[in-house]
TrEMBL record:
Keywords: Signal. The keyword Signal applies. This is Family 10 glycosylhydrolase. Residues 5-304 form the Glycosyl hydrolase-like domain. The keyword Transferase does not apply. It comes from Aetokthonos hydrillicola Thurmond2011. PANTHER family: GLYCOSYL HYDROLASE DIGH (PTHR43405:SF1). It comes from the Bacteria.
Length: 348
């Protein structure tokens, strides 16, 4: 199996009960294996807590695990079932550098106010409801690397995954005193007021790319076979809005497999994004790393079986050998309709 010949699914805590018990985990993984999936991406970091007992979190924030899982280790339970079914397991650090969602920074920034990201006005950085840690701060980066390495060192996994929040920072950020001082040392002036100023944008994006380079190196030092998987937003929108320079990540060889979130709700729009990425971002050498993220369910939205089949067929036409779906519960709607289509077609 090449790296991107992957039939993957995200397992969430939102709108899903899979991780609520060992029984549900076993049932879900048996179901996925039967349909023909070969990789799962279970969330292990969101809402300022882990889904495994974390010494890093305990020492830094006094919270060992998400309170609803006290007494359990959902990650360990998922691994047991995934191994039994022969599925790859790649833990997903969903919240990345986000501190909270509509909680004014929540637990993390209550403990570490100096870790807050700031906009030009000096306010706590907030975008689309999420408040942010300062991803450009070496201390915050160190915390994130330690959190990820803890999983890499202690669990039998096949890789780790960042997403549209890891590594990322809304481009309105970077105006905290530490980052401003760093910029001033280098250029002898304050950062531009315009957060989209090209040089300032790239300077901050490069700091995040360097963070990813370090993360990649540290993960591989533990086990060179582990996959470093990233699911960023779409280039180059993601660079302009979240400082995610996934083109540079590919050029520098900092990802083994990449899942741009092509969350389009009709096939024509999906195809247009795939065409652009294949022509503008990927080369013959890097195309083998591409397995797009496809939205199959969100709130009341449910992808149609026809749209799903068209997307997968188009991927193969373009030489794209796999995809990852958001998210598990979408397979179970309408008496497992999408799962049936996949099992009777490309995944069977």
């Amino acid at each position: 199996m090449t790296k991107a010949e992957i039939r993957g699914i995200w397992i969430t805590t939102t709108d899903s009960r899979v991780l609520h018990s060992k029984y549900f985990i076993g049932e879900a993984i048996t179901f996925l294996a039967d349909v023909g999936f070969d990789a799962i991406f279970p969330v292990v970091w969101n809402k300022a807590a882990t889904l495994y007992p974390s010494q890093v979190m305990l020492q830094t924030f006094g919270v060992q695990i998400d309170p609803q899982y006290v007494g359990r280790d959902p990650l360990a339970e998922v691994i047991v079932e995934a191994r039994r079914a022969g599925l790859k397991i790649i833990p997903w650090f969903e919240y990345g550098f986000a501190s909270s969602y509509n909680l004014n920074g929540g637990r993390l920034l209550a403990h570490k106010p100096q870790w807050a990201a700031r906009d030009y006005q000096g306010n706590l950085l907030k975008k689309n409801g999420f408040e942010w840690l300062n991803a450009l701060d070496p201390e915050v980066q160190e915390f994130m690397i330690n959190l990820i390495l803890e999983v890499v060192q202690n669990y039998d996994i096949d890789g780790i995954q960042g997403d549209d929040r890891l590594p990322a920072l809304p481009s309105e950020g970077g105006y905290d005193s530490k980052t401003v001082e760093r910029y001033r040392q280098q250029f002898g002036k304050n950062p531009p007021k315009n957060p989209k100023d090209r040089q300032w944008l790239h300077w901050r994006a490069d700091i995040l790319t360097d963070f990813l380079a370090r993360l990649y190196q540290e993960v591989k030092a533990v086990n060179s076979n582990l996959l470093v998987s990233m699911a960023p937003n779409i280039y180059d929108w993601a660079l302009q809005e979240y400082l995610q320079d996934s083109k540079a990540w590919l050029e520098r060889g900092l990802v083994d497999i990449i899942h741009p979130l092509i969350y389009r709700r009709d096939f024509k729009s999906y195809k247009a994004v795939v065409d652009r990425l294949v022509n503008e971002q990927f080369t013959k050498e890097t195309l083998s790393k591409l397995a797009p993220g496809i939205l199959i369910k969100s709130g009341s939205y449910q992808i149609s079986p026809d749209h799903l089949m068209q997307a997968i067929e188009y991927n193969r036409t373009c030489g794209i050998l796999g995809e990852v779906f958001f998210f598990y519960e979408g397979l179970r709607e309408n008496n497992n309709a999408l799962a049936q289509v996949l099992h009777n077609g490309p995944y069977g």
